[in-house]
Amino acid sequence: MLIHDAQLWVLIPVVAILAGTFKTWVRVKAQQRVLGASNRELEQDVAALQKDREALLARLENLEAIVVSQTWDAVHDLSLPPVERERKVASTVSRELGTSGPSFQQRAEQLARRLQG
Fold this sequence. Notes:
Layout: H1 2-68, H2 70-75, H3 82-97, H4 104-116
């Protein structure tokens, strides 16, 4: 009986240690599951934010191109009379777009303006 009691006293701490380790392992696994789910959500959020950033950068580049263009300056040059400003805008637009001259619609508009006054 003495040997049996001695084995029992050794077995109790071993079982307690193993039970504590198992509890810790279960808790860590549960945390990993929660973190894994939140990781996936964060990855999706980051991907969506990257798409939004790319779209915003493209819009910013377009706005920068507009602001630094000569056409913008010509349109907002208030020192010129309206007719001269329109001519300047038309010439800068044709230079920036690479067209050789005004389009038929622009020519018709110019002729209509001349006839009106």
